Amino acid sequence: MGRTRVTLADVAAASGVSVTTASLVLTGRARELRISADAERRVRSTAQELGYRRNTLTAGPRAGRSQTIGFVSDTVASSGWAGDMVKGAVDAAYRHGFMLFVGESGGDPVVERTLVDAMGDRRADGVVLASMHTRTVAVPDGLYDGPAVLLNATPASRTTAPSVLPDEVQAGRSAARVLVEAGHDRGIHLIGAGPGMCDTPPHSIAAEERLLGLREVFSSAGAEVAGAQWCPKWTPEHGFAATAQLLRTHRPKALVCLNDRLAFGAYQALTEAGLSVPEDVSVIGFEDHPIASCMRPRLTTVALPHYELGAWAVKVLVEMVLRRGRGARGPMVHRVPMPVREGGSVAAPRG
Q: What residues contact 123, with CB distance under 8 A and at least 6 apart?
């Protein structure tokens, strides 16, 4: 259900003043027109308590579309990946004749709600709510007011907003096939999560879905997953520690690292143990993090398509805007393929 918007008349009635007085206070003209300090405090306090937002554009019925899209993300400036996602969204908006307004929340839900509301105040035709890493989100009330798409996010409660997500299950299948097609069917170990579906870091949608795809292909190919090292965080330090611990008792033929930073740590541990990649141990990762291209040999990895995710989210949103009030709804979940980036880290097992 949508929310009921608080009006200026609501604020005036609750404050015990006229609509004119309330308007003058909230537009910053109380002092010049000699409105009492008590009345000013009362109006401002009431407006805050009720959640009143002043429309920054001219009031009146909405005529047509504004040809603008709001894009609210938890990360923009601090990540190259986020920049790729925004670039994809900008390019797609331009191709469809829309302008994109971008806001960064820093992961703060209060800032996120404020940004979503601001996009609505500026009459954006729709809003993309984006997350840098796939997670479950509480959908801000403002997204119920018009077309919206969740990017790299799933809703914590029922909503009409569809989700655009990377196809992590297919990514797991792709990684497993790379190893199986190279001849690996024994001595395969997982670094970061597994072997069971419950053996994942808390709230990690990516871990669960990658494991699902891996297990499906390994099982159908008769390949044995010999073991797994669970990691609380997917960082190079944890990848190094997990691999070093594994090497104390096992000699793996292949490592599936649940992300590239874990793989970077695994490389270091293998080198310290006198083992080479891929001659002694094959390694495959996920995400195509910039660190993957710095590794020698270059890591084979399954890429997160950030540019394509941003472009797809805008495409879905534009279709919703153009279809608004007409025709059937589109799918609630859109999966964007994750391609394999070939490196030199996988080879046929020796011996």
A: 57, 62, 66, 68
Query: Tokens 């141990």, residue?
Result: 281
**Sequential DSSP letters for 68-117:** EEEEEES-STT-HHHHHHHHHHHHHHHHTT-EEEEEE-TT-HHHHHHHHH
Mean per-residue pLDDT of the chain: 89
Parallel, antiparallel, or unpaired: how do β-strands 99-104 and 126-137 relate?
unpaired
In the 3-class helix/strand/coil scheme, how is 261-329 assigned residue by residue? HHHHHHHHHHHHCCCCCCCCCEEEEEECCHHHHHCCCCCEEEECCHHHHHHHHHHHHHHHHHHCCCCCC
Tens digits of residue pLDDT in 291-335: 999 999 999 999 999 999 999 999 999 999 998 766 567 789 999
Query: What is the helix, strand, coil percentage profile of the chain, to 5?
Result: 40, 20, 40
In 3D space, the residue among 297, 279, 280 whose CA is nearest the CA of residue 342 turns out to be: 297
* Alpha-carbon dihedral angle through residues 265, 270, 271, 274, given to the nearest 10 degrees: 170
Q: What is the pTM of this model?
A: 0.79
What does the DSSP 8-state code read for residue 128?
E
H or E element at residue 214: helix 205-221
Task: Write out pLDDT tens, residues 129-162.
Answer: 999 889 899 888 888 878 999 999 999 888 889 9
DSSP bridge pairs for 102: 71
**Gap between the Cα atoms of 187 and 12, Å rounded:** 72
Angle (CA) 87-162-134 rounded to 5° is: 60
